[in-house]
Design brief:
By secondary structure, this protein is of the alpha+beta class. It is 32% helix and 25% strand. It contains eleven helices and 14 strands. It has a five-stranded antiparallel sheet. The protein has a four-stranded antiparallel sheet with strand order 11-12-13-14. Helix 9 packs antiparallel against helix 10 and helix 10 crosses helix 11. The N and C termini lie far apart (58 Å). The protein binds flavin-adenine dinucleotide (FAD).
Length: 306
């Protein structure tokens, strides 16, 4: 029944309901089959993982693919484990699995801190990390966390498997390096080393909201100095933004007060915020500065405790 069909006095009176356009539904059990189906539709088919971004878009008719390729029945995509110096996050690993994972605490702290801040428990039960970065919402939290952690994305397509650095994977608002018939099979995060720590700070209007501003920080120390700093920003640009100048200024430093303040200033400079319902550009830039400073101190403490 469409909105116009409802009679006066019906329980739905006055409510507007939107239904997706019709589509073909496929639930393959192998990756090869899934890639083949995607190829058949020549860019007019979509992968379905948790459905937490795709289904709302289809209901609003912002997306109307001819086919849906549901990957939830493909075995082997739900692993979350460290293997040979790399943390592997399979394409069907849910936000909730990350939230509960002991592996994501400690030196992978930026990931462990991000998971519980993504939306609400209902979305976290179904939504996936790979789906989040494939969706490439500039307000998505995982994009920043994975930039700070220097992740790589593994994609399978008709031509085989390729590995894409996260910086190259995120290309623009809701745009990635994925070809139409490619599927993300896993996200890989390099081991940041024993003296590492990270955090994710997120300002939201209320619990479950997208970020007004988010700042992801991951630090790795060696011999008392900072070897590598990863800093990335959410909600203050048309993509998640790597605060590259801030990272470079910190590398090799002793992370003293002056270095922290300068890095926070550079991160704020890298932000490209706009005035919107969540706040003014000036307000958001200031939050980036404060969160970067706070994030660096928290991550350094976590690394010391590691
Ligand atoms: C009410 C609400 C609040 C939310 N709040 C937040 C928030 O605060 N922070 C945040 O980061 N996110 C938030 N989200 C988004 C949520 O995190 C989604 O789970 C996530 O963006 C998409 O993951 P998914 O598995 O649900 O992907 P889907 O919805 O299934 O897919 C999303 C897109 O990615 C593609 N895709 C999915 N998996 C793959 C794959 N393996 N290979 C190739 N393409 C793929 C799909 O084709 C589609 O285009 C919110 C969502 C809702 C509904």
């Amino acid at each position: 029944m469409g909105a116009r069909d409802r009679g006066a006095g019906s329980p739905d009176e006055g409510r507007v309901r939107v239904y997706p356009a019709s589509f073909e539904y496929f639930a393959p059990t192998t990756l090869d089959e899934a890639v083949e189906i995607l190829g058949r539709y020549d860019g007019d088919a979509k992968v379905l993982a948790g459905g937490q971004s795709l289904i709302p878009l289809m209901k609003l008719r912002f997306a109307a693919p001819r086919a849906i390729v549901d990957i939830n029945r493909i075995a082997g995509l739900d692993g979350l484990a460290e293997e040979g110096g790399v943390l592997r996050i399979g394409a069907l690993v849910r936000h909730r699995t990350c939230e509960r994972s002991a592996v994501l605490r400690g030196r992978y702290g930026v990931l462990g801190d991000t998971a519980p801040q993504v939306s609400d428990p209902i979305v976290r039960n179904l939504g996936t990390v790979a789906g989040s970065i494939s969706h490439a919402d500039p307000q998505g939290d995982w994009g920043s966390a994975l930039l700070a952690a220097n992740a790589e994305v593994v994609a399978r397509g008709p031509g085989g498997t390729r590995t894409i650095p996260i910086d190259d994977f995120i290309q623009g608002p809701f745009t990635t390096a994925l070809e139409p018939a490619e599927i993300v099979t896993e996200v890989r995060v390099p081991d940041p080393g024993p003296r590492s720590g990270g955090t994710y700070l997120k300002l939201e209007r209320k619990v479950g909201d997208f970020a007004t501003v988010g700042v992801a920080v991951q630090l790795s120390f060696s011999n008392g100095t900072l070897g590598r700093a990863g800093i990335a920003l959410t909600g203050v640009g048309s993509t998640n933004i790597r605060a590259r100048a801030a990272e470079q200024a910190l590398a090799g430093s002793a992370l003293d007060d002056g270095a922290i303040r300068e890095a926070a200033r550079l991160a704020a400079e890298a932000a490209e915020p706009r005035d919107d319902i969540r706040g003014s550009a000036e307000y958001k830039r200031n939050i980036v500065r404060i969160f970067t400073e706070r994030g660096l101190r928290t991550a350094a403490e976590a690394a010391r405790a590691a």
